[in-house]
Task: inverse folding
């Protein structure tokens, strides 16, 4: 029998001594997970989730009454009422169709503001390291409630990504009263499993964001791969470009084509580097973070890029953090006498094991489905069992596991809806919405991590080409038009220019215009950032019905 050898090694200049058993065979590098050596990353990630929740909820709170309030564009109370009526006919509890806290609190303006306030308070608790586990659970429930009752305004991929990451954080955090900054204790078995799941989540997000660009490449959308011209459109046609996008748009064609190569490398190849030990995970984390920072510099995508960067943190091994950060975060050696009881362990696993099993099944369904249902499928045969599809449909409203695919196709033109009002039907005056592209002379601005959701929805509605009452955007657009015709002061918060400050217009119409960035010469002559032409009518002139005598 081979003699067991052991030695002591130092961590961070001898502050902590760790016992290592060196008789254990060393596995190949791509099988070494070293999950306990991600203590600093775990601590930073959990606190980072508190910060992201704070940004997301504060941004939503600033718009919540106008968007989902009792007299909002898409009242949450009306949605709850509709779901409740359908549930009465089917005999199913409405909670399972639209899970959230509003079934308990109601969706009044007071309830909306109260939950947003509670969410911000819970976020601060996480940042301060107090009641981290219960606070993260509360944040997940609150944001789930907002997503499910926010309609199209809360239908973005980063909203469901935050819920998926937030659910994982429940198994990565410490469920104790106090979790101080200088206390990254060893990871429990449950923590380690959740850590590996977090690696899978960032790999899934990045890989599918790259793969869908290839899978949807066709004669209709050749710009991603065949023509390699996608980036010549991206900066101009993205929903809310900042002023830096104008400069990026005018970079040479060779640069736009060449920039696709590192993008595909980062999104399609490097997710697999997570399998190759701590150096592979470090390389992936740095590349993912670099891509996100490049997007931050030229786009306004809410909190998405910062959430993705937070998801990169668990990939980083403790040894790679700089010394100035390791000093205040030196892991402590736990007292071996302080161990959870068998009853406590049984309770923990009774909650964690079913959750991990569900995550495995739901993610299997997501991956197999997405690889099969693309125009160019990687899997020609549907391998998802019918029972697994049924489970995914039933649990879909909880957003425990989701598919992702940012920029699946590239928009090559930029249509914009320009709303105009008139008192006589002859002279028309345009409304200028905050953050939306309207005034051609206005410098495009940075707004992230705040997400002005009405401005975003205008971009999606314009892609439809014409007002369609069956569209997902029809309800809020109709509500907005009615509020403008009635002179509702609540919509003033959306406007930077109100052409009818004293009395509302009698008529309102929407024209569809094609916007393009000006060339450098055009901008030097006119000072304009944009040029535009009318391409059609989005909504014909409408007016309120005459009052009955």
Result:
């Amino acid at each position: 029998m081979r003699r067991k050898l052991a030695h002591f090694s130092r961590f961070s200049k001898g502050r902590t001594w760790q016992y290592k058993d060196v008789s254990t065979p060393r596995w190949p590098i791509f099988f070494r997970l070293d999950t306990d050596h991600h203590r600093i990353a775990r601590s930073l990630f959990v606190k980072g989730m508190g910060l992201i929740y704070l940004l997301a909820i504060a941004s939503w709170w600033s718009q919540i009454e106008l968007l989902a309030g009792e007299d909002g564009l898409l009242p949450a109370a009306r949605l709850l009422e509709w779901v409740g009526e359908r549930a009465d006919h089917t005999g199913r509890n409405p909670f399972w169709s639209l899970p959230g806290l509003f079934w308990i609190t109601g969706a009044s303006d007071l309830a909306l503001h109260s939950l947003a306030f509670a969410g911000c308070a819970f976020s601060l608790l996480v940042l301060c390291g107090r009641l981290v586990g219960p606070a993260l659970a509360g944040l997940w429930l609150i944001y789930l409630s907002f997503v499910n009752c926010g309609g199209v305004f809360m239908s973005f991929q980063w909203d469901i990504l935050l819920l998926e990451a937030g659910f994982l954080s429940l198994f990565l955090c410490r469920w104790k009263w106090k979790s101080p900054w200088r206390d990254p204790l060893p990871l429990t078995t449950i923590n380690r499993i959740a850590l590996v799941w977090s690696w899978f989540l960032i790999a899934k997000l990045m890989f599918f964001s790259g793969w869908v660009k290839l899978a949807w490449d066709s004669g209709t959308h050749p710009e991603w791969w065949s023509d390699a011209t996608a980036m010549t459109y991206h900066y101009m046609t993205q929903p809310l470009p900042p002023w830096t996008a104008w400069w990026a748009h005018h970079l040479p064609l060779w640069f736009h084509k060449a920039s696709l190569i590192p993008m595909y490398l980062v999104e399609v190849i490097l997710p697999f580097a997570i399998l190759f030990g701590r150096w592979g995970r470090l390389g992936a984390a740095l590349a993912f973070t670099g891509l996100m920072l490049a997007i931050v510099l030229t786009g306004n995508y809410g909190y998405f890029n910062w959430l993705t960067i937070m998801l990169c943190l668990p990939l980083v091994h403790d040894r790679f953090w700089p010394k100035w950060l390791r000093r205040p975060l030196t892991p402590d050696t736990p007292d071996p006498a302080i161990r959870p009881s068998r009853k406590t362990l049984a309770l923990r696993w009774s909650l964690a094991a079913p959750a991990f099993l569900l995550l495995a099944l739901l993610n299997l369904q997501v991956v197999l489905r997405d690889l099969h249902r693309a125009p160019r499928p990687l899997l020609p045969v549907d391998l998802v069992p019918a029972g697994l599809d049924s489970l995914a449909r039933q649990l879909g409203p909880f957003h425990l596991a989701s598919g992702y695919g940012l920029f699946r196709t590239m928009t090559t033109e930029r249509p914009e809806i320009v709303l105009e009002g008139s008192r006589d039907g002859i002279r028309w005056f345009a409304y200028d919405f905050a953050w939306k592209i309207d005034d051609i002379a206005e410098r495009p601005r940075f707004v992230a991590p705040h997400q002005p959701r009405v401005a975003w929805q205008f971009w999606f509605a314009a892609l439809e080409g014409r007002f369609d009452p069956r569209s997902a955007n029809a309800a809020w657009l109709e509500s907005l038009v009615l509020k403008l015709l009635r002179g509702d002061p609540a919509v003033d918060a959306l406007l930077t220019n109100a052409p009818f400050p004293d009395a509302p217009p009698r008529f309102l119409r929407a024209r569809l215009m094609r916007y393009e960035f000006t060339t450098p010469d055009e901008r030097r002559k006119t000072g304009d950032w944009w040029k535009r032409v009318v391409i059609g009518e989005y909504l014909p002139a409408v007016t309120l019905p005459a009052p009955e005598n």
About this structure: The two ends are 103 Å apart (CA to CA). Residues 39-332+339-398 form one domain. The longest helix spans residues 342-372.
